[in-house]
Design brief:
By secondary structure, the protein is α/β, with parallel strands linked by helices. It contains seven helices and four strands. A four-stranded mixed sheet has the order 1-2-3-4.
Length: about 170
């Protein structure tokens, strides 16, 4: 009776389902970080996901007091499909010298009401995580807005991963 749910933000749920004997019981439940504070969960239906597994997952999300959005199994699902190009554009803006990191972050916080700026969010999520997701999305869709900018690649190669490494767009070593 078990449902197999992955919390992935980028792996193919259909590929995971294909490796099981009961693919109709496989789906994605993408919880947002930090889980105790964030109310959103993406429920991802793979091609073989059955209605009973889907309804069970939806009930579980509601039982937790969270709000579900439903997505087909495609790279980025709903939120990362919108978020990743926004984050990558903030890196491109910095890389091109149009604005400082502080001005980019303050522009989105104060001008758009976002709780944190895109470069701060990148540091929180992890530059390596965003780079990995962007590459998957670029491989799938071959659209330029999913291509990681050179600065992001160089920072990941240098080990500047954000909060988890103590340095990203900002310095967290203190």
């Amino acid at each position: 009776d078990a449902v197999l749910a992955s919390n992935t933000s980028s792996l193919s749920i259909t590929e995971i389902a294909a490796c099981t004997k009961r693919p109709e019981r496989v789906l994605g439940l993408h919880f947002f970080n930090p889980v105790p504070l964030m109310k959103l969960v993406e429920i991802i239906r793979a091609l073989p996901t059955g209605e009973p597994a889907f309804e069970r997952a939806r009930g579980y999300v509601e039982q937790l007091g969270k709000t579900a959005v439903v997505a087909k199994d495609t790279p980025g699902f709903v939120v990362n499909r919108l978020l990743v190009p926004y984050l990558l554009d903030s890196v491109r803006l910095l890389e091109s010298g149009i604005a400082s990191r502080e001005d980019i972050d303050n522009g989105m916080k104060l001008g758009c009401g976002y709780p944190m700026g895109p470069l701060t969010l990148l540091d929180f999520v992890g530059l390596d995580t965003t780079y990995y997701i962007a590459n998957i999305m670029f491989e799938e869709f071959r659209q330029p807005h999913f291509a990681p900018p050179p600065l992001l690649k160089r920072m990941v190669l240098a080990g500047y991963l954000g909060r988890k490494s103590g340095r990203g767009f900002y310095d967290y070593s203190k």
